[in-house]
C-alpha cells in the first residue's frame, strides 16, 4: 500500500574520496556493485518496496551520470501518477551558485519541494549504503512512540563502535545521548544515517540552524544534539539484517564478497524484496569449454574463457583464456586479457588489463585497478 504520509529524501552528494579512482568522475552512489547494480539502487528500491511514492535525490559532486540514472523513475516503479523520483541539485543563490554545506543544509535548501508534497513525516536516507529495509516498520516505531524523530541503529562490535555515531538509550530505546565517534563508547548502537522526522518540527529547527554561523549544518553534529538539548522525544529503531557503508575500496570489496556467502542476509535473488536496477539488455553469460569457475557470482553478458575463483564478475566483463582471477571484483565492462593473473583486486568499469599482467593486493589491502594496464606497465 502506498505511504502518502511520508516523503523520502536521499542524500547522494558526497565526494566518496576514499573510493579513490572509482569516484574521480562518478558520484559515489553511482558506483557499480554486485554485478549489475549501483549503490543508489538500494535506498531507491527500499523506498519503492515500502510504498513511498515521492523520493527526492539530492546530488552534488560528479552528478551528471547519477542525475541521468535516477531520473528514469520507471526502473523502480515510481513513475505512476502522483509519484516519482526528483533530482535536486544545489540551488542558485543571490550570491552565486552554492553547494550543500552539510546534510541538514541540503534539506533546508529543498524545504519548498517538501512543502509542496505536504508530508507528515520526512525520511532522510544516505545514498551510499548497501542494505534492505522496510521503512514502514521504521515508521511504525516512530508513530508508536509518538516520537519527534526516530533513528535506525544497528549493533556493531563494541571495539569498533568508536568509528560510528553512537546512540545511548534507556531500556525502551529512547535516546538519551548521541556521541559522534566516541573514544570510549558507552553502547554499541550505531546510527545507520536513516532518520524519520516529523516535518513541521524539523522545518522549524532547520530554519533556525540556517541562521547560525557557527553551525556545520549537519544532522549528526547540529540538529540531533539540538533536539536532545531541547528535550524532544528521540527513539532508536534497532535493525536486524545486512547493512554496510561501502565508503572505502576494502569495504566495497568486502560487501561484494558477501554475495558469495550463502548465509548472508542480503539475498539479491530474493524476489519478495527486489532490488531494482537498469536492464542493460545484455545477452546471457558465456562460460567457455576450457574455463574453470569456482564459487563465483557472474552476471549476464559476461564471457568467461579463463579461470575464475571466489570472485564477482559484473555485466559484460570478459576474461580471456589463460587468465586467472581470484578473490576479486570485476566491475561492468572490464576486460581481462590472456595470461593475466589477478588476486585481491577491484577492476574499475571498462578498464582493460593485460596481456600477461600479474597484480595482487591482500585481503587487508585490496588493489584498485582504475586505468588500462598492458604488459604490467601503465599506459
Automatic annotation (TrEMBL):
* One GO MF term: ATP binding
Q: Which domain of life is it from?
A: Bacteria
Which residues does the record give as alpha-D-glucose 1-phosphate binding sites? Answer: 100, 165, 180-181, 191
Give site residues, Could play a key role in the communication between the regulatory and the substrate sites. 60
Look up the coiled coil feature and give its residue ranges.
none
**Keyword hit for Nucleotide-binding:** yes
* Nucleotidyl transferase domain sequence ranges: 8-261
**Gene Ontology annotations of biological process type:** glycogen biosynthetic process
Q: Which PROSITE patterns match?
A: ADP_GLC_PYROPHOSPH_1, ADP_GLC_PYROPHOSPH_3
Q: Which reaction does it catalyse?
A: alpha-D-glucose 1-phosphate + ATP + H(+) = ADP-alpha-D-glucose + diphosphate
List the pathway annotation: Glycan biosynthesis; glycogen biosynthesis
Q: Which EC number(s) does UniProt give?
A: 2.7.7.27
Please tell me whether the keyword Cell inner membrane is annotated for this protein: no
Stretches assigned to the Glucose-1-phosphate adenylyltransferase/Bifunctional protein GlmU-like C-terminal hexapeptide domain: 289-359
Q: Which UniProt keywords apply?
A: ATP-binding, Carbohydrate metabolism, Glycogen biosynthesis, Glycogen metabolism, Nucleotide-binding, Nucleotidyltransferase, Transferase
- Please name the NCBIfam families in this protein's record: glgC, PRK05293.1
- Extract the PANTHER family matched here: GLUCOSE-1-PHOSPHATE ADENYLYLTRANSFERASE, GLUCOSE-1-PHOSPHATE ADENYLYLTRANSFERASE-RELATED
Q: Which family does it belong to?
A: Belongs to the bacterial/plant glucose-1-phosphate adenylyltransferase family.
Q: What does this protein do?
A: Involved in the biosynthesis of ADP-glucose, a building block required for the elongation reactions to produce glycogen. Catalyzes the reaction between ATP and alpha-D-glucose 1-phosphate (G1P) to produce pyrophosphate and ADP-Glc.
Oligomeric state and interaction partners are given as: Homotetramer.
Q: Under which name does UniProt file this protein?
A: Glucose-1-phosphate adenylyltransferase
- The species this protein belongs to is Streptococcus merionis
- The gene coding this protein: glgC_1
Amino acid at each position: 500500500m502506498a505511504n502518502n504520509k511520508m516523503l523520502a529524501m536521499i542524500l547522494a552528494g558526497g565526494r566518496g574520496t576514499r573510493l579513490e579512482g572509482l569516484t574521480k568522475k562518478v558520484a559515489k552512489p553511482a558506483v557499480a556493485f554486485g554485478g549489475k547494480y549501483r549503490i543508489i539502487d538500494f535506498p531507491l528500491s527500499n523506498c519503492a518496496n515500502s510504498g513511498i511514492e515521492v523520493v527526492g535525490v539530492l546530488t552534488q559532486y560528479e552528478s551528471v551520470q547519477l542525475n541521468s540514472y535516477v531520473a528514469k523513475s520507471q526502473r523502480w516503479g515510481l513513475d505512476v501518477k502522483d509519484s516519482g523520483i526528483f533530482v535536486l541539485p544545489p540551488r542558485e543563490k543571490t550570491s552565486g551558485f552554492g553547494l550543500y554545506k552539510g546534510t541538514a543544509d541540503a534539506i533546508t535548501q529543498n524545504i519548498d519541494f517538501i512543502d509542496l508534497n505536504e508530508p507528515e513525516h520526512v525520511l532522510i536516507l544516505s545514498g551510499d549504503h548497501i542494505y534492505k529495509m522496510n521503512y514502514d516498520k521504521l515508521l511504525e516505531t516512530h508513530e508508536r512512540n509518538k516520537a519527534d524523530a526516530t533513528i535506525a541503529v544497528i549493533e556493531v562490535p563494541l571495539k569498533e563502535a568508536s568509528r560510528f555515531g553512537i546512540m545511548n538509550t534507556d531500556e525502551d530505546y529512547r535516546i538519551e545521548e548521541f556521541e559522534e565517534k566516541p573514544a570510549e563508547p558507552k553502547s554499541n548502537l550505531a546510527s545507520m544515517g536513516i532518520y524519520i522526522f516529523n516535518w513541521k518540527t524539523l522545518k522549524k529547527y532547520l530554519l533556525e540552524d540556517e541562521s547560525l554561523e557557527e553551525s556545520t549544518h549537519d544532522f549528526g553534529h547540529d540538529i540531533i544534539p539540538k533536539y536532545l538539548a531541547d528535550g524532544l522525544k528521540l527513539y532508536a529503531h534497532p535493525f536486524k539484517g545486512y547493512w554496510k557503508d561501502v565508503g572505502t575500496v576494502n569495504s566495497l570489496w568486502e560487501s561484494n564478497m558477501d554475495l558469495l556467502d550463502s548465509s548472508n542476509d542480503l539475498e539479491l535473488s530474493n524476489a519478495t524484496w527486489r532490488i531494482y536496477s537498469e536492464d542493460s539488455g545484455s545477452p546471457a553469460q558465456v562460460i567457455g569449454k576450457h574455463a574453470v569457475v569456482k564459487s563465483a557470482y557472474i552476471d549476464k553478458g559476461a564471457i568467461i574463457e579463463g579461470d575464475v575463483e571466489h570472485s564477482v564478475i559484473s555485466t559484460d566483463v570478459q576474461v580471456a583464456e589463460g587468465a586467472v582471477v581470484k578473490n576479486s571484483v570485476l566491475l561492468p565492462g572490464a576486460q581481462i586479457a590472456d595470461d593475466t593473473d589477478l588476486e585481491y583486486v577491484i577492476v574499475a568499469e571498462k578498464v582493460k588489463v593485460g596481456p600477461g599482467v600479474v597484480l595482487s593486493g591482500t585481503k587487508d589491502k585490496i588493489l584498485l585497478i582504475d586505468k588500462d594496464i598492458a604488459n604490467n606497465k601503465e599506459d
